[in-house]
Amino acid sequence: MEQNVECTLTSSTDDTVEYILGVTKALSQLPYYEDATELQCVRKLKPDVDTTTPFEKAKDCWRRQLQQIPQISDAKATKLVEKYPTARALMEAYEDPSYSVEEKRAMLAPCMDDRRNHVKLSDCIYRLMTSTDPKELI
């Protein structure tokens, strides 16, 4: 009578050895198996192959980071990078005291698309870049 035991019948000693090696290998790798995280679900975007200078590489990296935000396409990210080539440039604009908070929240809306008003998306990016509350849902 078998209870909670898996039995595998093999036809030869070689098959038995091969099966035991496979089980041993699987058990030895089990502690090193990584569970999927949210970072593994992030879109993998290819870098621009024409980037040669460090500044161009930084702009390309910034463009790919922007694309990770929902509703930011490559075209929108490219237009944003034209206006604010680095994250630091955008932060400097957000830190400019001559703009009100409402102006800062809508600052990126005209940069993304000429045909549509993206105030809500601009506000989302503003909160993402400036929020100090780690529990805020963006």
Task: Explain what the structure shows.
This protein is mostly helical. Helix content is 51%, strand content 0%. The protein is built from 7 helices and no strands. The protein has helices at residues 13-29, 54-67, 74-83, 87-95, 101-105, 109-112, 119-130. The mean pLDDT is 85.
Brief summary of the model shown:
Helix content is 51%, strand content 0%. It has 138 residues and is mainly α. Helix 2 (54-67) packs across helix 3.
Coarse morphology = elongated
- What value does the Rg take, in angstroms? 26 Å
Residues in helices, as a percent range: 40-55%
**Separation of the first and last Cα atoms:** 58 Å
* Class from secondary-structure proportions: mainly alpha
Quaternary structure of the protein? single chain
Q: How many strands in all? A: 0
The average pLDDT value, as a whole number, equals: 85
Share of residues in strands: under 5%
Tally of contiguous helical segments: 7
The largest sheet, given as strand count, sense and whether it forms a barrel, is: none
List keywords for this structure.
138 residues; mainly alpha
Task: List strands and helices in order, with pairings.
Blueprint: H1 13-29, H2 54-67, H3 74-83, H4 87-95, H5 101-105, H6 109-112, H7 119-130
Helix pairs in contact: 2-3
